């Protein structure tokens, strides 16, 4: 069992990572961090590793294909994950009628519960 989250530098991505760390610590399970950008800055990855080590969270960086929704769903299925954590943007009243296509795909295709957080 594990928790799955994507590595994104946005405020939403950072909120998701923070919550995923909390969930992994509370559940005492590893955190699988999906790196969707193949050109991710090595210094950024080192900083994430250090953050996880400091938090006392067992973690694995998982290379992705560049499609975050597919990568999160696939990683969750492969790992037998108990939770996927995603960050959502705040939306206008009209935008609230339509959930982002990536988030919608994750919710519909996920093999486990999905926790959506806002920054």
UniProtKB/TrEMBL annotation:
A Pfam family annotated for this UniProt entry: Usp
Family: Belongs to the universal stress protein A family.
Gene3D superfamilies: HUPs
Domain UspA intervals: 47-118
InterPro entries according to UniProt: Rossmann-like_a/b/a_fold (IPR014729), Universal_stress_UspA (IPR006015), UspA (IPR006016)
Name under which the protein is recorded: Universal stress protein
